[in-house]
Design a protein that fits this description.
Length: 93
């Protein structure tokens, strides 16, 4: 898709972590069942890894594909998701 829109980047940034989380969860659970490893502890690490994939896509959008607006939209959403992750899972009372 070669359209360069800020809102399209924001949409990609929101939607992309969901299938990535599903794939990571399947890999993690199948390796646990096979007894190869104990899995990611705590389980919230899968959330953070699925958000981190957005940053790899941002690099491609900004440098390789030269779609600046889409990349910046994804970057904004990715940063907000990481901030929300730390606010939700790592609160200090």
């Amino acid at each position: 898709m070669k359209k360069d829109h800020f809102l399209l980047g924001m949409l990609f940034g929101i939607v992309m972590p969901f299938p990535v989380y599903g794939i990571l969860w399947l890999i993690d659970s199948s390796l646990k069942k096979a007894g190869i490893w104990n899995g990611l502890q705590p389980h919230e690490n899968l959330y953070l890894l699925s958000i981190a994939i957005n940053f790899l896509l941002v690099r491609f959008y900004l440098s390789k594909w030269n779609l600046r607006k889409t990349g910046l939209g994804m970057l904004l959403v990715s940063i907000l998701l990481v901030m929300a992750f730390f606010l939700v899972f790592y609160k200090q009372y």
